Amino acid sequence: MHSYTLVITNTWNEILTYRVNFVMWRMRNIIQLAGTYALWLTLLAQGDSIFGYTREMLITYILGVYLITSIVASTRTTEIGTDILNGNLSNYLIRPLNYFGYYIARDIGDKFANILLTLGELTILFLLIHPVLFIQTNILILLGFLLALFLALCLQFILYVLVSILAFWSDDVWGIRFIYLVVASFFMGAYFPLDMLPEPFFSIFQALPFQYLLYFPLKIYLGEMPLMSFITGMLVCLLWIIVLYLVTKMLWQKGIKSYTAYGR
Amino acid sequence: MGDNLRKYSKIWWMLSLRAAKVSLNSRFGAVLFIVAKLVRFFLFLLFILVLETKVQTVSGYSLWQMIFFFATFNIVDVLGQLFLREVYRFRQYVISGDFDYFLLKPFSPLFRSLFGGGDVLDIPILLLSVLFLFIATMHIGNVTLGGVLLYLVLLGNAFLIALAFHILVLSLCIVTTEIDNALWVYRDLTQLGRFPVDIYHEPLRGILTFIVPIGIMMTFPAKALMGVLSAEVILFSCGVGTGLVLVALITWHYALRSYTSASS
Prior knowledge:
Number of strands of chain A: 2
Number of helices of chain B: 12
Mean pLDDT of chain A: 86
Strand order of the largest sheet of chain A: 1-2
Distance between the termini of chain A: 29 Å
Low-confidence stretches of chain A: none
Helix content of chain B: over 70%
Shape of chain A: globular
Largest sheet of chain B: none
Oligomer: heterodimer
Radius of gyration of chain A: 20 Å
Shape of chain B: globular
Structural class of chain B: mainly alpha
Radius of gyration of chain B: 19 Å
Largest interface: A-B, 37 and 39 residues
Strand content of chain A: under 5%
Distance between the termini of chain B: 34 Å
Mean pLDDT of chain B: 86
Order of helices and strands of chain B: HHHHHHHHHHHH
Largest sheet of chain A: 2 strands, antiparallel
Low-confidence stretches of chain B: none
Structural class of chain A: mainly alpha
Order of helices and strands of chain A: HHEEHHHHHHHHH
């Protein structure tokens, strides 16, 4: 356990070593938030609500996207593909620690740094622009939201790992990751709530696992998820996690057999 | 002057051919990148369409005008990627000391660092954007030859501003050896130009026009074609473009003096 704690600390130190890069990374997030926020404010200026979302609901959704993305999307698993491609994976395989445990620890370090800074940035934003927010006070709904968030973390980790281990068979793991990021960020509802889409797009987006990364937890927080939809959603999300975990495990076992430590 | 132009054209052609061969070396990877970029293009188009179904006009702009702005954004964005992709690899040259080789060659190290490897994978998106530009122009109507010429002039000016940003990023890299997120900050900022900057409220609109001239790069060319941009604003835009390039060149010469050739 101590080894993994050290990995978390090391990840923090690593982040703080390249300070300019880190400040720029945070700036990127602020710019993205400012753009989305400003766009929706303009659209909301044309009426009290848009696509059935009131001003406070939509602003809460947008700021929620910012916060949840910093928790769910921040990751170090991008390094897995590189480890496989340049043979560095061998270094980890001979160490007395679990390779995925190592990356879970790295992700925890990375996520903590991002959460802390996101909260700081959101606080400054509140003080500057006083956004009207929807505050959920129902404890049960909040617990449901936290549970959905935890499942989102698990799902995202598995999806990231799944994409990364394709490096066992292809040098083009960056291309695969790029297409994943493009599709996932759109299909998870990072740009707008998915129920703004007309049919059949909404149904297509709902059939994919990505909505559980962002849209689903946020809809729970907003109190717009009836009990039956909540239960069904959680079960489907759990099913996705189990299926994708099994696929990832199978691919890892196959991949590790074909791994030749090429590049070492 | 003529000889120099011929020499640099030849160097650019040779470097671009080499970069194209590298990019197309893995056809699967190339296909993945192109598909991802196309998916992103069409998903944003879908987003604009969805918006227009609910709000008819966004800040007074019709659907086809919004598509025109979006296509212009893509052209400016892609031109930067197509010609200036080498900037993304610059950090590696600096930290490995390979930048020394650029300094030893009998041609400008800045030229080599900027134009050393265009991204041919952006050509499909460029062609698609031009196609949508034509379609949108036909729907907008009332387009004059003067408007088209001004559009092209301001498009050239947008490329100058993009060039200046990239030179500033190269300079930052020499001074700090950290560049990755600085480039992405630039990309995120330009992405606010997917929509005309007029739709944003102040102070963001002012920032995007006068401090970070995204409006000048992305919005002004389209507005010139629509005939809603005054001569003073056009002159001001060209002044900003030229001024920024001069500032960037001064910064570059300053940064070069602090290059230590570490790791070489």
